[in-house]
From TrEMBL:
Name of the protein: cysteine desulfurase
Keywords: Pyridoxal phosphate, Transferase
EC number: 2.8.1.7
A Pfam family annotated for this UniProt entry: Aminotran_5
Catalytically driven reaction(s): (sulfur carrier)-H + L-cysteine = (sulfur carrier)-SH + L-alanine
Annotated organism of origin: Roseicyclus persicicus
Cofactor(s) required, per the database record: pyridoxal 5'-phosphate
Family of the protein in this entry: Belongs to the class-V pyridoxal-phosphate-dependent aminotransferase family. Csd subfamily.
GO aspect biological process, one term: cysteine metabolic process
Residues annotated as domain Aminotransferase class V: 25-395
Gene3D superfamilies: Aspartate Aminotransferase, domain 1, Type I PLP-dependent aspartate aminotransferase-like (Major domain)
Taxonomic path: Bacteria, Pseudomonadati, Pseudomonadota, Alphaproteobacteria, Rhodobacterales
Amino acid sequence: MTYDVAKIRADFPILAREVNGKPLVYLDNGASAQKPQVVIDTITRAYSMEYANVHRGLHYLSNLATENYEAVRGIIARFLGVKDEHEIVFTSGTTEGINLVAYGWAMPRMQAGDEIVLTVAEHHANIVPWHFLRERQGVVLKWVDVDANGDLDPQAVIDAIGPKTKLVAMSHMSNVLGTVFDVKPVIDAAHAQGVPVLVDGSQAAVHMPLNLDALGADFYAITGHKLYGPSGSGAMHIKAARMAEMRPFMGGGDMIREVHRDVVTWNDPPMKFEAGTPGIVQQIGLGAALNYMMGVGMENIAAHEARLTAYARERLAGLNWLTVQGNSAKKGAIFSFTLDGAAHAHDISTVLDKKGVAVRAGHHCAQPLMEHMGVTATCRASFAMYNTEAEVDALVDALELCHDLFA
């Protein structure tokens, strides 16, 4: 199949606009991706013609909204390669999903001295919930470093697992380095020792086909706003056996079966973990986004982004005054960089913005990794299914202007 990037770009209305008098070159996809028209139309229709609260109503609109909302569970399961859609818990995104596991699964079964193995490359969303357990229950956090190329040796993670390890929590793809981590050997080795594994799939799910049933992680988190869907949408895949071990994280709404003065009984999973009025339209929009991605084909998206990554790697390597953080052979379409000299990442991003090029600047919610790399901040250009080689050239041209200004 020919990958028609021009046709794909036409599906994203915002890409036709200008910024500061220049065509928009949107390279901040690692933070949030833009939305195709089908998602915008789905959200508009849901609010304007189909909106009602879900599950509890008996009228036409409530039934329609419930049907549309619950259908997304199956869409997510298909997208992730999960046979049992009842293993899909709706969340507002990865942060809520990981906190759900921290409060609902980890907190009741961990005590002082128990260990959680993490990598230094984690996003804060996969660090801070575990610090809660460290502060409140005396849980020990064990860290595994990446090497100079940004690679993570699976054996190093496996070696960090000991008799007190109760959980391994790691990213599938670094949001800073773009490195795709080989999580499967870690999952298999951890399971051989009776240790569950949580995987943060926020970046990986956007860039590659997934088969979570084959991967075998106990918990796998995705977030909708990076998947061309709305903010406030997402999901957590939780194996049924782990769901049975979990207590509810929040109380209220559809997570109950009965409530009395002296007793309360919980609903069955996954509803047991979905309290309150949910993000109805957000999840419906996510379903439209995932259907759109599957229509293009995840293998096709991955192949297109691999070509972009190779081209960007080559072009950026020609700038001998620019340092790219992480140069793994397993690198995906994310490039974090600094300029030699005194130019701060924020200054670089401001100059790039004047040329219509949108990148991220800062610590990217990954301060332990920044400390490990010996920098306080980087610029990050993160590519998506709609980006082009011409936009790589625009990035390089803007960086050359930066060099001229700050040299």
